[in-house]
From TrEMBL:
The lineage of its organism: Eukaryota, Sar, Stramenopiles, Ochrophyta, Bacillariophyta. Residues 1-150 form the FACT complex subunit SPT16 N-terminal lobe domain. This is FACT complex subunit. Component of the FACT complex, a general chromatin factor that acts to reorganize nucleosomes. The FACT complex is involved in multiple processes that require DNA as a template such as mRNA elongation, DNA replication and DNA repair. During transcription elongation the FACT complex acts as a histone chaperone that both destabilizes and restores nucleosomal structure. InterPro entries: Creatin/AminoP/Spt16_N (IPR029149), Creatinase/aminopeptidase-like (IPR036005), FACT-SPT16_Nlobe (IPR029148), Fact-SPT16_PH (IPR056595), FACT_SPT16_C (IPR048969), FACT_SPT16_M (IPR013953), Pept_M24 (IPR000994), PH-like_dom_sf (IPR011993). SUPFAM superfamilies: Creatinase/aminopeptidase. Residues 949-1008 have a biased composition (Acidic residues). Residues 446-480, 946-1038 are annotated as: Disordered. Belongs to the peptidase M24 family. SPT16 subfamily. Its main location: nucleus.
Length: 1038
C-alpha cells in the first residue's frame, strides 16, 4: 500500500481551478481544513513532521507548535528562503527524510501522478525546487507512489466526517427535491421549451445559493462538485465527465445528475424521470430498481468491493436478462469524501479492497443503449415525445454509508416508479382495451377535468387546457344503455361471489349454539345465610335466589326480563318478569337467553312472572335495588363483550430507532377520549402510526389495519386533516371505532361563523386574510409532506399505504345524518370528514345505488347506497340538489356502479329482508328456471329493461319503413296513444309522490303559479279525453 516508503512527501503545488480534486489538495483539507498552495510536508515513520512554506502559511501553522500529540512527536516549520532558492531548507528536509540510512538510497513516497504533472512548474516555486532536488542522483532517493495508502486512510470516515457527509448528502437531496424536480415539472406542465444546459445552469446556481430553496446555509461553505448533467431525447452518457448539451429538453426519458460540496465534503445523486413511459420502459426501470437493491444488500463490512458488480450481474441473470450485462457501465460507483471520486476504490469487477465501517460510496447503477421497440412506441399517444425515441438509458445514484448493520442510504429522495413517472398524454383507445379498471379510468378522467390540483399530485397543464375539446359528453340515454349492460354483468359477478362465499362459509352458523346457564354446580355451593322465605341476590355468581314453597331456587340474572316494585300499601310487593316463549323478548334481551328460549320453546314450561309479598318493605326494596344493579352490570358486560367480539388483535408497534421519525405536532384526534378534547402528536414508525396525547393517552394504528388513508387539504374548510378508515375496529376509550382522524384547525370555528361582518377595505382584515392564506398553505404542505414520508416509511418496511385525496370537483351537498354537509368522492370512498359523525362509504362494499324522489316537481332527491351485505341497512344521503344528479350518475357509471331511479321513497327495511331471503335474487328466472323475472335490482327501474330493448328494436327497424301498411300505421297510433297515457300517469304519480314536500313552505306566488299550472293541465287532459277514446293501460314495471 505504501510501497516500502521510509517517509512521505506531500508536495502541494499551486492551485489548479481545472482540477480541484488533486490528492495533495484533498490531503491539505484533511489535515488543516484549508488549502495551502506551494507547500511541502514531510512525514516520517518516527513521527517527525517538517513543513516548508511561505511566511503567512508558517504563521498560520505556528499555533500548532508545542502541542504535538498522537503520532506527531516533533513539528518543524521552515520559512521559504529566496536568497539561496531554499537550498539550505532542502538539505535539512532531505536529512530528515533519510533519517538513519547510513548512506543507502531511501524510498520517499510521493503522489506520482502529480509529480509527473509538476514538471512545468515555474522557476522559484518551492515544490518545483524540491522535486528537482529529489531527482538529483546525489540525493540518493528512490521515489515510490503512495496514492493507494492515502486513499485507504481517507476512505473510512470518523464521526465528524460522517456528519459532514450526511449534511452534504442532504444538501444534494434538497436541491434535487426542491430545486430541479419542481422546475422540470413546471416545464413539462406548461409545455415550455428549454435546453439541458439552461436547466443545469439553474441547478448549479441553486447549489451555489441554497437560499433559493429556503435552505439557511452559508454560501461560502457550499459549492457544486461538478456542473450538473441533464440529458434526454435518446442521447445519454452516464460517465462522470459527461456534459449537458444545448439541445432542447424532450419529454421522454430525462436523467439528471448533480453533486453538492459542503465544507469540501462531496455528495452525488442521480435520478431518471419517465414521461409517458411505455410498459417496456417501466418494466426496465423496475428491473434497474431491483438491481440497485441487490447491490445495496452486499455493501457490508468484509465483502470485497467487486461483489457489488457481481451482485448486479447475478441479479440480471436471475431475472432472465443476461443480455443486459453488456449495458452495464464499467463500474457501479466509487468512494467519496473530500475527494469526489477515488479512482482506486471503485465498484467494478476487479477491486478486491474490502468494505469497512465508515466508508461512504456513491452507488450509481445504470443501463445504457437500451432499444425501444416499435411495438412499445405504438402504445403511447401520438403527441408524446416517446414516439421519436428509439434508444434510451436509465440511471439511479445514491450516497451509501457502510455500517455494521445494513447500509444506510443518505440521499432519501424517492426512486420508485410512482415517484419518477409522469403522464401528460393519455391514450384513450389503449386505456379502453388494456385497462378495464373503473378506478383507473376515473383517475384519468379527473386528471383531464381538473385545471388546478391543490393535492400536490402531478398533473398536466396542457391536458387541462385541451380538456374541453377532448372530452365527449354523454347523454342520459347513453348512460342508461351503459347501465343496463353494467347491471347484467354485475349480476353475473355477484352470483359468482355469493357462490364462493357460501362455499367458504360452510356450516359456521351451525356451530354457534346456546350456552347453558350454570349459577351453582351443586346445592352445597349456595350461600349459607339464606332464610327460607327471603329474596336473596348473589352478586358474585350473578343470580337471584327466590323462595318457592320455602325452598331457595336460584335464577340466573340473564333470565330476568325486568323487576317491578309497586308503591307499598299495607304490604310491599315485588314482581319479577322472566323471558318466556310465545312473547316478544325485546331488543335488550341477552343473545344467549334468546337462543335458550328458542331451544326449549317446543317442549319446556316457562315461568312468566313471580310476585312476592312482604310486610317488611325494607327487605323487598333492598332486593329490588340489588336486582336492578345486577341487571345493569350484566347488560354493560354483554355490551362490552359485543363491542370486543369482532375485535382483531393488533400487532405490537415497533418503534423506529436511530433515524428521524416523521411527526406532526399539535394535532386534535377524533373521536375523543372520554368526551374530552384530545390533542397530541402523531408519529410514523416501522409498522404503524402512534398518537400520543398531552395526557399520555396512546393510540396505535397499524399499517396492515388501514383500509383507506385519506388526506384532505384545507381549501374551503376550517381544518386540514388525515383520516384512517380501518379494516378492523379498535378500542378508543370504551368504544369501538373504525374511523380515526387527526386534524389541525386553520380558522377557529367561532371566527368562521362571525366572518360575515368583515370589511374588504379594512387593512387589518386584509392582513388577517393574508396570514390565514399563508397558514393554510403552510399547513397543507406540512400535512402533505407528512403523508409522503409515511408512505415512504411504510414502503421501506414492506407495507402498502397510499393516501387518497378527495376530488372536490365531484363533490355535492347532502344530508347523510342530520345536517347538510359537503360530500366528496375519493378513488375508493364516498366521504364527508369535516363534520361528525363521519360519513365514509367504501365503494367496494356498494352493490347498487338507487335515487329516490326523482321527479320534475322536486328540487332535491335522495340517494340510497345498498350494501353488498344484505343484513345491513343501506347508507342514505338525503336532500341532494337536482343540479348534481347528472354528474353523480356519470361518476357512478365511470366507477362501474349500477344505479336506478324512482319517484318515491321505499321501505328499505322490508326490501332488504325480502332480498336477503331470496336465493335467486340475481337470477333472471324463477325457481322453475323457465319463467323469466327481473334479475337483481332491475325491479327498481322507473322504465324497465324491456322498454329500452323495444326502443332499440324500433330504431333498428326504422330503416325498413317502405313496407308500412294500413295495419302497421294503426298499431303505431295505438302505441303512441298508450305512451301518451303512460306519460300522463307518470306525471301524476310524480306529482303525488312529491306533493307533501312541495306544499311545505310555499309562498302565495308559488301557490298561485301551482294553481294556474293545475288548471292548464286539467283543461288539456279534459280536451284530450274528449278527442280520443280511452286506451287500455299497459302493465309495466316501474
Amino acid at each position: 500500500m505504501w510501497n516500502g516508503a521510509n517517509c512521505i512527501s506531500i508536495n502541494r503545488a499551486s492551485t489548479d481551478d481545472e482540477n480541484p480534486y488533486t490528492k495533495s489538495e484533498v490531503m491539505h483539507h484533511y489535515l488543516f481544513g484549508y488549502d495551502l498552495p506551494d507547500t511541502i510536508i514531510i512525514l516520517t515513520k518516527e513521527g517527525k513532521c517538517v513543513v516548508l512554506a511561505a511566511k503567512k502559511k508558517i504563521e498560520f501553522l505556528e499555533s500548532a507548535q508545542g502541542k504535538e500529540n498522537g503520532s506527531i512527536v516533533e513539528l518543524t516549520l521552515l520559512l521559504r528562503d529566496k536568497s539561496d532558492d531554499n537550498a539550505a531548507n532542502f538539505e535539512d528536509m532531505l536529512k530528515v527524510a533519510k533519517g538513519k540510512s547510513n548512506g543507502e538510497n531511501v524510498k520517499v513516497g510521493i503522489i506520482m501522478k502529480e509529480h509527473k504533472s509538476n514538471g512545468s512548474l515555474k522557476e522559484g516555486s518551492i515544490v518545483g525546487g524540491w522535486e528537482k532536488k529529489l531527482g538529483e542522483a546525489s540525493s540518493k532517493v528512490d521515489l515510490v507512489d503512495i496514492t493507494a495508502g492515502i486513499s485507504m486512510v481517507m476512505s473510512a470516515k470518523d464521526e465528524s466526517e460522517l456528519d459532514l457527509m450526511k449534511k452534504s448528502s442532504v444538501l444534494s437531496n434538497k436541491v434535487l427535491k426542491h430545486g430541479f424536480i419542481p422546475r422540470i415539472e413546471s416545464v413539462i406542465d406548461e409545455g415550455l421549451k428549454t435546453t439541458h444546459e439552461r436547466l443545469a445552469q439553474e441547478v448549479d446556481e441553486t447549489i451555489e445559493d441554497p437560499s433559493k430553496i429556503n435552505l439557511k446555509v452559508q454560501k461560502e461553505t457550499v459549492q457544486s462538485c461538478y456542473f450538473p448533467i441533464v440529458q434526454s431525447g435518446g442521447k445519454y452518457d452516464f460517465k462522470v465527465s459527461a456534459q449537458s448539451n444545448s439541445d432542447t429538453v424532450k419529454y421522454d426519458v430525462i436523467t439528471v445528475s448533480l453533486g453538492a460540496r459542503y465544507q469540501y465534503y462531496c455528495s452525488n445523486i442521480a435520478r431518471t424521470l419517465l414521461v409517458d413511459p411505455p410498459k417496456q420502459v417501466s418494466a426496465m426501470y423496475e428491473l434497474l430498481l431491483g438491481m440497485f437493491e441487490a447491490c445495496l444488500k452486499v455493501m457490508v463490512p468484509g465483502n470485497p468491493l467487486k461483489t457489488v458488480y457481481g451482485a448486479a450481474v447475478k441479479y440480471l441473470k436471475a431475472e432472465g436478462k443476461e443480455d443486459l450485462v453488456s449495458s452495464l457501465p464499467k463500474n457501479l460507483g466509487f468512494s467519496m469524501g473530500l475527494d469526489f471520486r477515488d479512482p482506486l476504490l471503485q465498484l467494478n469487477s476487479k477491486c478486491t479492497v474490502p468494505f469497512r465501517q465508515g466508508m461512504v460510496f456513491n452507488l450509481a447503477v445504470s443501463l445504457s443503449g437500451l432499444k425501444l421497440s416499435e411495438a412499445a412506441r405504438s402504445t403511447v399517444n401520438n403527441k408524446s415525445a416517446v414516439k421519436d425515441l428509439s434508444e434510451y438509458g436509465l440511471l439511479i445514484a445514491d450516497m451509501v454509508q457502510v455500517t455494521n448493520n445494513s447500509p444506510d442510504v443518505l440521499t432519501k429522495y424517492g426512486k420508485t416508479l410512482t415517484d419518477i413517472s409522469y403522464t401528460i398524454n393519455d391514450d384513450d383507445d389503449a386505456d379502453e382495451s388494456d385497462d378495464d379498471d373503473g378506478d383507473a379510468r376515473l383517475a384519468k378522467k379527473i386528471a383531464k377535468e381538473e385545471e388546478l390540483q391543490p393535492s400536490g399530485g402531478r398533473r398536466s397543464g396542457r391536458l387541462a387546457a385541451n380538456a374541453s375539446s377532448a372530452q365527449e359528453t354523454e347523454g342520459a340515454a347513453e348512460r342508461e344503455r351503459k347501465q343496463i349492460e353494467l347491471m347484467a354483468r354485475k349480476n353475473e359477478e355477484r352470483l359468482r361471489e355469493l357462490a364462493r362465499a357460501s362455499k367458504k362459509k360452510g356450516g359456521d352458523e351451525k356451530t354457534k349454539k346456546a350456552e347453558e346457564l350454570e349459577a351453582y354446580k351443586r346445592t352445597k355451593d349456595l350461600p349459607d345465610n339464606i332464610l327460607p322465605n327471603q329474596v336473596k341476590v348473589d352478586m358474585a355468581n350473578q343470580c337471584v335466589i327466590l323462595p318457592i314453597c320455602g325452598n331457595p331456587v336460584p335464577f340466573h340474572i340473564s333470565t330476568i326480563k325486568n323487576v317491578v316494585l309497586p308503591d307499598p300499601d299495607s304490604a310491599s310487593y315485588l314482581r319479577i318478569n322472566f323471558y318466556t316463549a310465545g312473547m316478544a323478548v325485546g331488543k335488550d334481551a341477552p343473545e344467549n337467553t334468546v337462543k335458550l328460549v328458542q331451544k326449549y320453546a317446543p317442549y319446556a314450561t316457562f315461568i312468566r312472572e313471580m310476585t312476592f309479598r312482604s310486610l317488611d318493605s325494607h327487605s323487598l326494596t333492598t332486593a329490588f335495588r340489588q336486582i336492578s344493579e345486577l341487571r345493569k352490570r350484566a347488560r354493560t358486560k354483554e355490551l362490552q363483550d359485543q363491542e370486543e367480539a369482532n375485535l382483531v388483535k393488533q400487532d405490537k408497534l415497533v418503534r423506529t430507532k436511530n433515524e428521524r421519525v416523521p411527526r406532526l405536532s399539535d394535532l386534535t384526534m377524533r373521536p375523543v377520549f372520554a368526551g374530552r378534547k384530545t390533542q397530541g402528536n402523531l408519529e410514523a414508525h416501522t409498522n404503524g402510526l402512534r398518537f400520543i396525547s398531552t395526557r399520555g393517552e396512546i393510540v396505535d394504528v397499524m399499517y396492515t389495519n388501514v383500509k383507506h388513508a385519506i388526506f384532505q387539504p384545507c381549501e374551503n374548510e376550517i381544518m386540514v386533516l388525515v383520516h384512517f378508515h380501518l379494516k378492523n375496529p379498535i378500542m378508543i376509550g370504551k368504544k369501538k371505532q373504525q374511523d380515526i382522524q387527526f386534524f389541525t384547525e386553520v380558522v377557529d370555528a367561532s371566527q368562521a361563523v362571525d366572518a360575515g361582518k368583515r370589511s374588504m377595505y379594512d387593512p387589518d382584515e386584509m392582513d388577517d386574510e393574508q396570514r390565514e392564506r399563508q397558514l393554510r398553505k403552510r399547513l397543507n404542505e406540512a400535512f402533505r409532506d407528512f403523508c409522503r414520508k409515511v408512505e415512504s416509511v411504510a414502503r421501506k418496511n414492506g407495507y402498502s399505504l397510499e393516501f387518497d385525496i378527495p376530488y372536490r370537483d365531484l363533490g355535492f351537498n347532502g344530508n347523510p345524518h342530520k345536517e347538510m354537509v359537503f360530500i366528496q368522492p375519493t378513488l375508493n370512498c364516498l366521504c364527508n370528514l369535516t363534520e361528525t359523525p363521519f360519513f365514509v362509504v367504501d365503494l367496494s362494499n356498494v352493490d347498487h345505488v338507487h335515487f329516490e324522489r326523482v321527479t320534475f316537481m322536486s328540487k332535491a332527491f335522495d340517494m340510497v347506497l345498498i350494501n353488498k351485505d344484505f343484513s345491513k341497512q343501506p347508507w342514505r344521503v338525503d336532500m341532494i340538489p337536482n343540479d348534481d344528479k347528472d354528474s353523480i350518475q356519470e361518476w357512478l357509471t365511470d366507477m362501474e356502479i349500477s344505479y336506478t331511479e324512482g319517484p318515491m321513497n321505499l321501505n328499505w327495511k322490508q326490501i332488504m329482508a325480502t332480498v336477503e331471503g331470496d336465493d335467486r335474487f340475481y337470477m333472471d328466472t324463477e325457481e322453475d328456471e323457465v319463467t323469466p323475472k327481473e334479475a337483481g335490482w332491475e325491479f327498481l327501474r322507473m322504465f324497465g329493461k324491456d322498454d329500452q330493448d323495444s326502443a332499440e328494436s324500433e330504431d333498428d327497424d326504422s330503416g325498413y319503413s317502405e313496407n308500412t301498411g294500413e295495419e302497421e300505421s294503426e298499431e303505431e297510433e295505438e302505441e303512441e296513444e298508450e305512451e301518451d297515457f303512460d306519460s300522463e300517469d307518470d306525471s301524476e304519480s310524480d306529482y303525488d309522490a312529491d306533493e307533501d314536500l312541495e306544499e311545505q313552505g310555499m309562498d302565495w306566488d308559488e301557490m298561485e303559479r301551482e294553481a294556474a299550472a293545475d288548471d292548464r293541465r286539467r283543461k288539456r287532459d279534459g280536451g284530450d279525453e274528449e278527442a280520443r277514446p280511452s286506451p287500455k293501460r299497459k302493465n309495466r314495471r316501474r
